[in-house]
């Protein structure tokens, strides 16, 4: 990820949050890495910050962890970065250990947003502020701030890109020439991730009227979140569900025209199932329109190769910078800036939030959004592998 590091360093200098080169992340029984540095925060006091990320199986979360860690260390903080290996008890134990080891603040991207009440209560009892990172932590009063993207809008963008791929809309939002009907299938993210509901609801705010008027047909009849959700965002589970849909619903010779997928990993599983079922090799030849999210390099290559149609780019460098800014504010004794104080009710309280904007990536915007910004290089896009 050399290009991303160089870009982040330049951007960080302008923000006084210069990014250092990504640290090496070793994977142990808990997929953890711990900073060995020590330092002081902005007010001269030595502070230790625990950063809990959900997994190292996704390149996105590795990049997030590296970015948060390096930015905090550049401000002089000691950082304990841990990856939970997609295992709820492991992440809970890691957070317990962070508190025991003297963390002054926690930044948590939860595996299960409902499973950390005990840890958060202990943090509150010890005067430790908690920042929820990208995934809202639910059912606890002890969440002090939330940094994320506008997740409902992400869903709107996913649905919009599906309609663009089908020809119902043009990229500029104007009406396209296609009228349907089109057969589509719906996928949603993990039901224990609060964001998954926002993504799905945002998408359905765009798709439901077209389902109601017959422009779009969900041939399987599976349109409710609980039925289409994929636990833990697992690629293999999405592939199996797509295979089952093809067998149960499309064995009559009808074809899938499009698939709403909320994450690139799921998209690759869906694409594998469709390819194995004999669909054409590229969109130009008639391959179904498949959406995505996170601009993972393997999926960016698929978009560049005219196989996957779109993804949503959430620049996690900006998300990391916002989390670091909020942490620095808390440890200096000030309240972080929030730009949303109404949307994110975690079941106990409305959590003050800072929302960032995302972008739709199509084949013709890979250069401007991903390569020119330094997120991926042209060579990485061509190879489908991060260097």
Automatic annotation (TrEMBL):
Periplasmic binding protein domain mapped to chain residues: 49-334
Q: Where is the protein localized? A: Cell envelope
Listed PROSITE patterns: PROKAR_LIPOPROTEIN
Return the GO cellular component terms, semicolon-separated: outer membrane-bounded periplasmic space
One of the record's GO molecular function terms: carbohydrate binding
Q: What is its main location?
A: other
- The signal sequence is 1-20
Keywords, alphabetical: Signal
Output the CDD domains linked to this UniProt entry.
PBP1_ChvE
Key word Signal present: yes
Check the record and name the Pfam families matching this protein: Peripla_BP_4
Query: Which NCBIfam families does this one have?
Result: ChvE
What is this protein's record name?
Sugar ABC transporter substrate-binding protein
What gene name is listed for this protein? chvE
């Amino acid at each position: 990820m050399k290009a991303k590091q160089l870009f982040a360093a330049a951007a960080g200098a302008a923000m006084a949050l210069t990014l250092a080169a990504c640290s090496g992340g070793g994977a142990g029984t808990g997929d953890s890495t711990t900073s060995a540095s020590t330092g002081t925060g902005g007010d001269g006091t030595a502070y230790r910050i625990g950063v809990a990320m959900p997994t190292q199986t996704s390149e996105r979360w590795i990049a997030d962890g590296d970015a948060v860690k390096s930015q905090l260390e550049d401000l002089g903080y000691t950082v304990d970065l841990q990856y939970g290996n997609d295992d709820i008890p492991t992440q809970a134990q890691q957070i317990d250990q962070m508190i025991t080891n003297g963390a002054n603040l926690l930044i948590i991207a939860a595996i299960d947003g409902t499973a950390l009440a005990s840890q958060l209560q202990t943090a509150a009892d010890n005067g430790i502020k908690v920042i929820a990172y990208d995934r809202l932590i639910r059912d606890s009063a002890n969440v002090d701030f939330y940094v994320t993207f506008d997740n409902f809008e992400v869903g709107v963008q996913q649905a919009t890109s599906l309609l663009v791929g089908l020809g119902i809309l043009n990229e500029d939002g104007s009406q396209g020439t296609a009228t349907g009907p089109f057969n589509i299938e719906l996928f949603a993210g993990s039901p224990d991730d609060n964001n998954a509901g926002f993504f799905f609801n945002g998408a359905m705010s765009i798709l439901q009227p077209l389902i109601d008027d017959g422009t779009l047909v969900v041939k399987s009849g599976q349109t409710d979140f609980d039925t289409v959700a994929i636990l833990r965002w697992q690629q293999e589970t999405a592939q199996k569900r797509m295979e089952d849909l093809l067998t149960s619903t499309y064995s009559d010779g009808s074809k899938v025209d499009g698939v709403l997928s909320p994450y690139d990993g799921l998209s690759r599983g869906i694409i594998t199932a469709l390819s194995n079922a004999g669909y054409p090799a590229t969109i130009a030849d008639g391959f179904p329109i498949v959406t995505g999210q996170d601009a993972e390099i393997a999926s960016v290559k698929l978009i560049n190769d005219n196989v996957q149609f779109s993804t949503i780019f959430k620049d996690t460098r900006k998300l990391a910078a916002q989390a670091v800014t909020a942490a620095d504010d808390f440890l200096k004794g000030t309240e972080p800036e929030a730009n949303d104080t109404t949307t994110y009710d975690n079941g106990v309280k409305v959590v003050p939030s800072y929302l960032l904007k995302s972008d739709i990536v199509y084949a013709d915007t890979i250069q401007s959004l991903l390569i020119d910004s330094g997120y991926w290089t042209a060579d990485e896009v061509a190879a489908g592998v991060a260097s």
